[in-house]
Amino acid sequence: MASGHGTQPPGRTAVAQVGTAGTYAFRLRLVASADADRLESWTGRPVQVRNGRGLLMVGVFFGLDYAEHRDDKARWDVALTVTRVTADTTAPVPS
């Protein structure tokens, strides 16, 4: 597991266009160390999240909160909050 687990990156760099703001907080259970490392590498990058009702959201998270799983010491419970980002879909795509 990476030594940076549970830390916030220095500064937030995500930029969102004017649109619907919101956050989605959730917990991932029984996350293996390799998957925790992958989540850590996604910090500050756009990710897609689908909630239990099927709503798809694109957003960015800036930190992870780790808790060692009491029944399986090789796995973690990971809490995170994704901040929704929106884009102007009418803007031309750069070539």
How is this structure best described in words?
The protein contains 1 helix and 5 strands. The model is unreliable at 1-8 (pLDDT under 50). The N and C termini lie far apart (39 Å). The chain has 95 residues and is mainly beta. The chain has one helix at 33-41, and strands spanning 23-32, 47-50, 56-60, 65-68, 75-84. A hairpin with a 5-residue loop joins strand 2 (47-50) and strand 3 (56-60).
Helix/strand layout:
Layout: E1 23-32, H1 33-41, E2 47-50, E3 56-60, E4 65-68, E5 75-84
Antiparallel strand pairs: 1-5, 2-3, 3-5, 4-5
Using the CA coordinates, give the radius of gyration.
15 Å
Strand content: 25-35%
Structural class by SSE content: mainly beta
Mean pLDDT: 79
Low-pLDDT runs of 5+ residues are: 1-8
Order of helices and strands: EHEEEE
* Range of helix content: under 10%
Shape descriptor: elongated
* Largest β sheet strand count, sense and barrel closure: 5 strands, antiparallel
Number of strands: 5
How far the N terminus sits from the C terminus, by CA atoms, comes to 39 Å
The number of helical elements comes to 1
Kindly list the characteristics that best describe this protein.
elongated, mainly beta, single chain, 95 residues
